[in-house]
């Protein structure tokens, strides 16, 4: 499986409509499986909610890094595989945090640092593809009042220095996307070289 990663420099809002099938093709002309990343606010409108548990809740933030992943390799699309791939990108990001000396906790598909929520995520499947939205707060601003949140730019090392900032954000995004693509492509290679009796 070939997966294209494209980082968009433009800032725009994630409102939930981007989880719809073939968004990357319709917006950017990208065929096939892809990961689109960009920085922007999140404000999911009620009509675009995919998780029944989120009905009636506010899902918003002023400043997040967004990942939209879409996969066409499984036909028909498989919701279970979509959720497994969602958990994989969450765990890869936790691996990156660990390498930076940041202690985090995972509850399902959510990442917490200092017992404050860092990420949001949803997986979905349509007739044609599997999709994942994974996003991380960059700052603790504009998030729901009833949720304790933290942003990547709020996290400090033991000396009080900022670990992530605007200068290294693209490097972080490329690292996470690259590791994720490598994991998925390695799985495909392992399947192809396994001798089935």
TrEMBL record:
Pfam families (UniProt xref): DUF366
Protein name: DUF366 domain-containing protein
Organism: Methanobrevibacter smithii (strain ATCC 35061 / DSM 861 / OCM 144 / PS)
Upper classification of the organism: Archaea, Methanobacteriati, Methanobacteriota, Methanomada group, Methanobacteria
């Amino acid at each position: 499986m070939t997966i294209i990663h494209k980082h968009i420099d433009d800032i725009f809002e994630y409102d939930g409509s981007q989880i719809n099938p073939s968004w990357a093709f319709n917006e950017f002309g990208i065929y096939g499986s892809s990961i689109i990343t960009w920085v922007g606010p999140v404000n999911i409108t009620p009509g675009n909610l995919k998780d029944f548990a989120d009905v009636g809740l506010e899902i918003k933030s002023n400043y997040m890094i967004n990942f939209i992943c879409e996969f066409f390799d499984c036909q028909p699309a498989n919701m279970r595989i979509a959720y497994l791939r969602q958990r994989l990108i969450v765990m890869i990001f936790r691996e990156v945090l660990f390498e930076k000396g940041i202690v985090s906790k995972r509850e399902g598909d959510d990442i917490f640092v200092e017992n404050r929520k860092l990420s949001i995520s949803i997986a979905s499947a349509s007739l044609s593809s599997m999709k994942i939205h994974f996003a991380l707060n960059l700052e603790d601003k504009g998030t729901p009042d009833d949720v304790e949140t933290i942003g990547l730019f709020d996290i400090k090392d033991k000396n009080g220095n900022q670990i992530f900032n605007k200068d290294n954000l693209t490097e972080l995004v490329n690292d996470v996307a690259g590791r994720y693509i490598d994991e998925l492509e390695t799985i495909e290679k392992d399947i192809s070289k396994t001798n089935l009796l």
